[in-house]
C-alpha cells in the first residue's frame, strides 16, 4: 500500500519565524498553510514541506530533503544570488567541485537552511 502513497518532507525549526523568513527570502517559497504548530509549503506537483518548531532542530547531520532539478548549475546560481551557501566536501566517496558532487547517478549539491537542516539539489544522470 505504501508504494502508491504520496510522501512529504518534515523539517524541524528551533525558531519558526526565522525559518519561515529564510524559506521566503532564500528559496522564494510562500506558505500554503500556517498554524501555531508549523508551516506547510507546496512544491512541485503534489510535493510539500512541513516545517515545525522544536528544540531538536539542526541536530541531524544527514540530508533531510532533496529537490530533483533539471539544471543544477542554474539552480545553484539562482540560490547563490539569494545568499544560499553550498557546502564543499572532500572525503572518500564524496568530493565536490564548486559545491557539486558528480557520480554515475548524477549531480548533487548540499546547503543548510536557517535551522541547520541539510538540504540538497539533485540532477539525475537520466533526465526526469
Automatic annotation (TrEMBL):
<dbReference type="InterPro" id="IPR037523">
    <property type="entry name" value="VOC_core"/>
</dbReference>
<protein>
    <submittedName>
        <fullName>Catechol 2,3-dioxygenase-like lactoylglutathione lyase family enzyme</fullName>
    </submittedName>
</protein>
<dbReference type="InterPro" id="IPR004360">
    <property type="entry name" value="Glyas_Fos-R_dOase_dom"/>
</dbReference>
<keyword id="KW-0223">Dioxygenase</keyword>
<dbReference type="GO" id="GO:0051213">
    <property type="term" value="F:dioxygenase activity"/>
</dbReference>
<dbReference type="InterPro" id="IPR029068">
    <property type="entry name" value="Glyas_Bleomycin-R_OHBP_Dase"/>
</dbReference>
<keyword id="KW-0456">Lyase</keyword>
<dbReference type="Pfam" id="PF00903">
    <property type="entry name" value="Glyoxalase"/>
</dbReference>
<dbReference type="GO" id="GO:0016829">
    <property type="term" value="F:lyase activity"/>
</dbReference>
<keyword id="KW-0560">Oxidoreductase</keyword>
<feature type="domain" description="VOC">
    <location>
        <begin position="5"/>
        <end position="124"/>
    </location>
</feature>
Amino acid at each position: 500500500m505504501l508504494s502508491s502513497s504520496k510522501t512529504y518532507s518534515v523539517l524541524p525549526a528551533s525558531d519558526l519565524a526565522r525559518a519561515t523568513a529564510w524559506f521566503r527570502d532564500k528559496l522564494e517559497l510562500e506558505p500554503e498553510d500556517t498554524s501555531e504548530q508549523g508551516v506547510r509549503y507546496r512544491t512541485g506537483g503534489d510535493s510539500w514541506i512541513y516545517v515545525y518548531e522544536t528544540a531538536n532542530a539542526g541536530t541531524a547531520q544527514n540530508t533531510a530533503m532533496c529537490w530533483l532539478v533539471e539544471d543544477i548549475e542554474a539552480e545553484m546560481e539562482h540560490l547563490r544570488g539569494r545568499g544560499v551557501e553550498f557546502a564543499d566536501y572532500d572525503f572518500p566517496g564524496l568530493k565536490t567541485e564548486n559545491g557539486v558532487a558528480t557520480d554515475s547517478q548524477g549531480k548533487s549539491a548540499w546547503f543548510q537552511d536557517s535551522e541547520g537542516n541539510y538540504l540538497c539539489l539533485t540532477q539525475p544522470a537520466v533526465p526526469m
